[in-house]
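Key result, reporting period 2: structure in, sequence out.
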């Protein structure tokens, strides 16, 4: 019996807008994706790094750049109530990884290949594929300047799509060159947009002299023709930058990884140089970028470290899972091996000792748990056992217990119908309950 409440029920609370609960069975898809990623990271020798979710606000302002969507309008920033420190929920993880690499002198004896997984926070308008708490999996290679590492990272992402069975992800590639090349291009870009000032929207006009490259990133359909006609950074690349891009391209070619050069691809953060890339699908509407990254050789310096080259990518977990679903590729959730049907409370110590032994030998078991009043009827427990998806019911009847045995009953086709097993020696028959035994 549930106790009668004498007070009024408290007001219902719900999750913050744009922040989602990830519930079973959906959460199994997350776990499966994460396992696949871990295996993949191992194949390429990337090591796991876990940085805090909260960082000093200054890290992002300095790292991402003041005139970026994230810093201008998307950060969850607050002052610590106790000491007034300006803090921010991380909107991405590259800046935090770089901070940690500097703080712990991680590059003291050469480069590091790292990966992370976790929640990120951006105050955006929630819609399909765009949330306020979302999740990224990212890979960063720090301390390596060669184009082969850019290529390695792209190949790893590509291998991941293959491993997952995703087909509809197209690679777009571009080079942002080096700062001096950007300066030349920047002047040409400003001149071009000034000539067409009347076709710019308000945001574009404001950013024109602050960060003209950002204008190429605009999603405003009315600006697309002016953007289309703008001078291309690719035409301003010097020999070394051109060679860097060519190396990436020839490694991709040798691996038969298709790509298109997209001269408009600029990415949302200030810290990129040379190689930038995105994996894009047409199957998720306008939130089609599933993975994005590039080289960021100047970020270490910008956040106060010794200069060191770096390159990385981040993928949006929600978008990858959405795409898997779209392509009918969800993983099968493994069902449990057995459901334990229990008699009265007095027998539970013996029953649970047997279950503990079976689990120690790898069997997954859901034990019937009822109310404090005592066990439910056999009939209703069998109903639960059926609904659980388990392959076997373990029937701990009073008669069986008296004889020191338990009845194993098949709930699905293909398994032996019924037999008894010794209670005290679970190790002898644990294997017979496991589907992969
Ligand atoms: P967009 O142009 O879609 O806003 P972005 O350039 O801001 O993307 P990045 O900062 O490069 O995105 O983040 C890498 C990846 O993380 C994106 O390609 C996307 O898959 C995912 N992502 C970014 N913002 C969100 C969000 N608000 N909700 C869900 N996924 C996101
Ligand atoms: Mg964004």
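The corresponding designed sequence is given below.
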């Amino acid at each position: 019996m549930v106790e009668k409440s004498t007070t009024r029920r408290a007001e219902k609370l719900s999750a913050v807008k744009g922040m989602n609960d990830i519930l079973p069975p959906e959460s199994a898809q997350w776990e499966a994706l994460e396992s696949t990623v871990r295996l993949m990271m191992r194949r390429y020798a990337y090591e796991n790094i876990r940085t805090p979710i909260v960082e000093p606000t200054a890290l992002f302002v300095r790292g991402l750049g003041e005139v970026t969507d994230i810093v201008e309008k998307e950060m969850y920033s607050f002052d610590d109530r106790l000491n007034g420190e300006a803090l921010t929920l991380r909107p991405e993880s590259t800046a935090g990884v770089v901070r940690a690499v500097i703080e712990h002198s991680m590059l003291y004896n050469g480069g590091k290949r790292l990966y992370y997984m976790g929640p990120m926070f951006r105050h955006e308008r929630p819609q399909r594929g765009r949330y306020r708490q979302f999740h990224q999996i990212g890979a960063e290679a720090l301390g390596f300047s060669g184009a082969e590492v850019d290529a390695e990272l792209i190949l790893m992402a590509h291998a991941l799509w293959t491993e997952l069975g995703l087909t509809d992800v197209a690679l777009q590639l571009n080079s942002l060159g080096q700062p001096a090349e950007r300066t030349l291009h920047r002047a040409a870009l400003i001149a071009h947009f000034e000539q067409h000032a009347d076709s710019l929207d308000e945001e574009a006009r404001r950013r024109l002299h602050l960060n003209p490259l950002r204008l190429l990133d605009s999603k405003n359909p009315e600006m697309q023709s002016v953007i289309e006609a703008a001078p291309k950074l690719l035409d301003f690349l010097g020999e070394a930058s051109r060679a860097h891009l060519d190396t990436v391209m020839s490694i991709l070619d040798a691996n038969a990884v298709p790509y298109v050069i997209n001269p408009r691809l600029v990415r949302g953060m200030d810290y990129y140089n040379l190689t930038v890339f995105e994996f894009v699908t047409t199957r998720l509407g306008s939130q089609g970028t599933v993975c994005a990254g590039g080289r960021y050789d100047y970020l270490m310096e910008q956040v106060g470290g010794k200069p060191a080259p770096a390159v990385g990518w981040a993928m949006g977990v929600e978008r990858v899972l959405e795409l898997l679903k779209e392509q009918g590729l969800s993983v099968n959730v493994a069902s449990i091996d057995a459901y334990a049907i229990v008699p009265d409370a007095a027998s539970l110590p013996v029953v649970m000792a047997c279950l503990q032994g079976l689990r120690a030998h790898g069997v997954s078991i859901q034990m019937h748990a009822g109310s404090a009043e005592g066990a439910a009827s056999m009939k209703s427990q069998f109903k639960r056992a059926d609904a659980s998806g388990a392959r076997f019911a373990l029937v701990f009847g009073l008669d069986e217990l008296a004889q020191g045995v338990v009845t194993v009953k098949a709930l699905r086709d293909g398994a032996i119908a019924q037999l008894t097993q010794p209670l005290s020696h679970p190790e002898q028959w644990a294997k017979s309950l496991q589907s992969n035994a």
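The mean pLDDT is 93. The first strand starts at residue 47 and ends at 48. This case is discussed further under Risks and Mitigation.
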